[in-house]
From TrEMBL:
Residues 1-89 form the HTH arsR-type domain. This is Metalloregulator ArsR/SmtB family transcription factor. Belongs to the AHA1 family. The keyword Protein biosynthesis does not apply. Pfam families: AHSA1 (PF08327), HTH_20 (PF12840). InterPro entries: ArsR-like_HTH, ASHA1/2-like_C, HTH_ArsR_DNA-bd_dom, START-like_dom_sf, WH-like_DNA-bd_sf, WH_DNA-bd_sf. Gene3D superfamilies: 3.30.530.20, Winged helix-like DNA-binding domain superfamily/Winged helix DNA-binding domain. Keywords: DNA-binding.
Length: 254
């Protein structure tokens, strides 16, 4: 899989497509063709390579196919090949840049989409998301507490402090979980309204014993601080969950 990612990133046109999606996610093929000097077929070919490498995801909305940057594989490459050599301030500068750029992109019903493949059953992924003893292993040492019923409240706790809260909007164990989300203790989120996180969990169509987990964060038009935090945080959460389910270890221990 890493070879596919490096191959996909080697082409400047594909890197340009990723830059375009980073600037404004959820674009149609026509949107992506306009800035590139190539045929529609050529852009489609590059997008297919990026999707096969897991660097982008697609979703059908009506008759349109929308393309989204998937930050999880890039984060995993960073964890393995960059973070062990880079100074901590590099990550801080990248985070600051992402937050500044995000401020200019709150339009046209934005959403962030992340996807990861985990060698585990959907039931194991569901348990990891809903069991406080397990969420604390990969969710920045925080545990999610709820009765896990529709319309029930949930809370995210860490270091004896409630970090976030929301409501279970919809659920279909072990396939889907939809929750509203609001941070309580992060600077810059004081005026944010509730946003929404959707977990989609399903068996991989080709690889037995592998589950695809897609996380969509949307409805954050009035929650820019929350969007910036989750844009950077959810890929780490997903990477940590993959490491925990596949190895039993925490991401920070590797």
């Amino acid at each position: 899989m890493e070879n596919d990612i490096f191959k996909a990133l080697a082409d400047p046109s594909r890197r340009k497509l990723l830059d375009l999606l980073h600037a404004a996610d959820g674009r149609t093929l026509n949107d992506l063709c306009a800035p590139l000097d190539m045929s529609r077929f050529g852009v489609m070919k590059h997008l297919n390579i990026l999707e096969e490498a897991g660097l982008i995801t697609t979703r059908k909305v009506g008759r349109e196919k929308l393309h989204y940057l998937n930050a999880v594989p890039i984060r995993q490459i960073y964890e393995r090949w960059v973070s062990k050599y880079a100074e901590p301030w590099v990550l801080e500068l990248t985070t600051l840049q992402n937050e500044l750029e995000r401020e200019t992109n709150m339009q046209n019903k934005p959403r962030n989409v992340n996807r990861i493949a985990i060698k585990a059953k959907p039931e194991q992924v569901w348990q990891a998301i809903t069991d406080p003893a397990k969420t604390s292993k990969f969710w920045f040492n925080c545990s999610i507490r709820s009765t896990w019923e529709i319309d029930a409240p949930f809370e995210l706790w860490g270091e004896n402090e409630k970090k976030a809260e929301g409501t279970i909007l919809d659920m279909d164990p072990p396939n889907k979980l939809v929750m509203s989300w609001r941070f309580l203790s992060f600077p810059g989120t004081e005026s944010d309204t509730m946003s929404r996180i959707t977990w989609e969990i399903g068996s991989h169509a080709e690889f037995q014993g592998v589950t695809l987990v897609t996380v969509v964060h949307d409805e954050f038009e009035q929650a820019p601080g929350t969007a910036a935090i989750l844009e950077n945080g959810l890929p780490i959460v997903l990477s940590g969950m993959k490491t925990f389910l596949e190895t039993g270890e925490m991401l920070a221990e590797k």
